[in-house]
């Protein structure tokens, strides 16, 4: 699928609505799926994200999505350069996800390395999950699908499953993606906890923010988690599994945009996904009222429960059926008449605790650092927004400081309900 | 220092005593240090290790050591091939160690990549520490030097100190050294705990071995530590820091042979070094008697105490003076008027616990797996050997199962003394 043209032969040039048909019109993998004369293709640029160009290309046969990296951070501008090679890693991540958790990531049809672009499946009528959660729409099997996706990619990308030389080679490959982990490291783990330059937060939230930033034990715990994140290669992560990286219909759930993919701790994607469900939960009082509010918030908590439950169930199933790597080998357990089930439970327990702590960190950075969530950000009444964000920030702090108290899902749910009732502002 | 010849131009050929002078006689970095006519160089092959060719080359000006990898495991033969590139990583490790912990690793004068050889400082009158420990010789500042070496390499090879892009690039480089971690992973972490093909142990030790291998919780703990080892890139390890990788005079301590170097947990080298001191301790009753035995064993325990104490002291010093990486940044602590000392203590506590567990694993593999220690192996009375090995194996088990009980050095010392008095065989 990688084309053979040398980087020198094909200098990078950003696509535009006007040049796309000419430049991709003779690429069979694209033209055959779009259909008709390239000159008559309907081309829309829809990149509402922070970093890239995204085009939807439609012809007589169908539609595809063309995604191309820009050499800078789109939401900031050319003053923040970002290497094009991140698109290569996004492509590598997509093909690995397709193998490890089939039918969740969009299918990739074509990859052009020098142009830092790839062409993939157009998901329709899917919309971004975050918008659905703000609108109060439900998605069947949402928690189950995300929990299962996290378990499958975590397990099958690790040395519980992969041959070690293959996994280590892949760690070497992904270690080339230096610029992307650097963003996660500072924006997620460090910036929220001091007055970093690009931070912003709702003005009325300041008392809560100031107190949070004085919590030395919290900062130390977060830095220890950063150390685990940055020096851990357990598995290939999605790396940015928030509700803007999930597209859904009422019944189908897909995961997109793994450009922050890196090797990291098994718990990370799970924790980040749950954090985004919790932020949807805490923001709901600004988006709907009364009974509708209560039942929709209850549904979000069910999604969180399903997410954890299905992660554990799928991980246990893979542990029984696909444990072919060097870790916890059958030669030491089953082949000696010993069960390895307790070892699986102990590992899942560790993953749960780490996931809760990473969850707390994500809950912080989305209201304190550079990239905020629309769930809160679209609340125009800043006093109300701050009140809801405070619940979220304080629950995040509790999860980082004492994940053990929320280890069992019912306790986590109760904790969320308690913070949802409690106002410090 | 890397020479410019292409790999194709210079096909690998193993050196011999007869060809060495011809092949290295015109290399300035070698010839100038050895001195005199290459034809008159005195050349001895002294590789008593498991893997490589090692020559001492002496001329009118001095001596150098030439080390060349063989394309197979020397102690097993051509039936166990092993890639030559491991010599490149040994070279990379030596130059990094020279920078991070000066004057401990031998100085490297010349590196020939295609020939998988390098030329380095001849350490004289140093001898292998293991031989000294078997003979009952003391080395001044042994524990202090090893503890300090472990702390310096651990801290300065991590993102507590290094710029993240540099460290991540280095992780990518070292991830190419696939064959070497694979050996550590199986020989150290897995083979000891079941009847792996290449294992051997003292026959009289069998009852202890059988019981150990039935301990499912132990095996699960060790595999969890393997998972941490194999998916952790905290720092660049020596990777094989046993008493055969240490050379010493009465007053000088040097560390050699980092060919098992890889990125891994900060606690690993420290744990392995202490394990080898403990094995020296437990083997002493076979090597000397009465008062001499008691005072020499007491000295070894002092070495262990100094090793841990100086590791902590040096790590704390570097934490205060060289914490320039992305982890626990001053912007979050000192610059906010917060001390980061507690965070350092908490990290050192974690390192200590992991070091004790890795220590226990090394104590096991050296009597149960392929590569045994001369400390025990040279005890001809196998009943006595098994009795001493049993003490070592059982203390190792205690350290893996409950490192917390030996967290404070005095408790660790008492534990060693208790196992030294206790016989199960």
TrEMBL record, chains A, B:
Pfam short name (any one): APH
The EC number(s) this enzyme carries: 2.7.1.100
Protein name: S-methyl-5-thioribose kinase
Recorded GO MF terms: S-methyl-5-thioribose kinase activity
Keywords: ATP-binding, Kinase, Nucleotide-binding, Transferase
Source superkingdom: Bacteria
Class of enzymatic activity (EC top level): transferase
Species of provenance: Halomonas citrativorans
Membership in a protein family: Belongs to the methylthioribose kinase family.
């Amino acid at each position: 699928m990688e084309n053979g043209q040398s980087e020198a032969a094909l200098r990078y040039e950003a696509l535009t609505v006007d040049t796309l048909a000419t430049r991709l019109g003779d690429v069979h993998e694209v033209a055959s799926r779009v259909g008709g004369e390239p000159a008559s293709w309907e081309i829309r640029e829809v990149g509402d994200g922070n970093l890239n160009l995204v085009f939807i290309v439609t012809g007589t046969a169908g539609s595809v999505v063309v995604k191309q990296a820009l050499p800078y951070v789109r939401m900031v501008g050319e003053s923040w350069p970002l290497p094009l090679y991140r698109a290569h890693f996004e492509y590598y991540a997509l093909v690995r996800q397709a193998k490890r958790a089939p039918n969740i990531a969009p299918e990739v049809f074509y990859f052009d390395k020098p142009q830092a672009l790839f062409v993939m499946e157009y998901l329709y009528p899917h919309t971004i999950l975050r918008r659905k959660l703000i609108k109060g729409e439900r998605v069947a099997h949402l928690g189950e699908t995300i929990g299962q996706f996290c378990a499958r990619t975590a397990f099958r990308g690790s040395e519980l499953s992969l041959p070690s030389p293959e996994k280590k080679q892949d760690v070497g490959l992904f270690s080339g993606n230096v610029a992307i982990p650097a963003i996660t490291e500072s924006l997620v783990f460090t910036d929220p906890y001091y007055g970093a330059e690009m931070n912003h937060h709702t003005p009325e939230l300041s008392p809560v923010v100031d107190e949070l930033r004085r919590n030395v034990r919290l900062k130390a715990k977060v830095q220890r988690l950063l150390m685990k994140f940055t020096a851990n290669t357990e598995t290939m992560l999605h790396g940015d599994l928030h509700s803007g990286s999930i597209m859904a219909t009422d019944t189908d759930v897909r995961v997109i945009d793994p450009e922050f993919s890196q090797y990291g701790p098994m718990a990370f994607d799970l924790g980040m996904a749950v954090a985004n469900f919790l932020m949807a939960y805490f923001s709901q009082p600004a988006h709907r009222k009364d009974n509708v509010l209560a039942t929709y918030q209850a549904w979000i908590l069910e999604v969180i429960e399903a997410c954890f439950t299905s992660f554990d169930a799928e991980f246990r199933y893979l542990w029984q059926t696909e444990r072919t790597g060097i870790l916890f080998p059958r030669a030491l357990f089953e082949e000696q008449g010993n069960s390895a089930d307790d070892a699986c439970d102990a590992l899942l327990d560790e993953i749960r605790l780490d996931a809760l702590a990473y969850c707390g960190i994500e809950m912080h950075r989305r209201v304190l650092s550079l990239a905020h969530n629309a769930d809160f950000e679209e609340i125009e009444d800043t006093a109300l927004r701050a009140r809801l964000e405070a619940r979220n920030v304080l629950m995040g702090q509790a999860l980082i400081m004492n994940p053990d108290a929320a280890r069992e899902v019912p306790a986590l749910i109760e904790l969320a309900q308690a913070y949802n009732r409690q106002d410090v502002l």
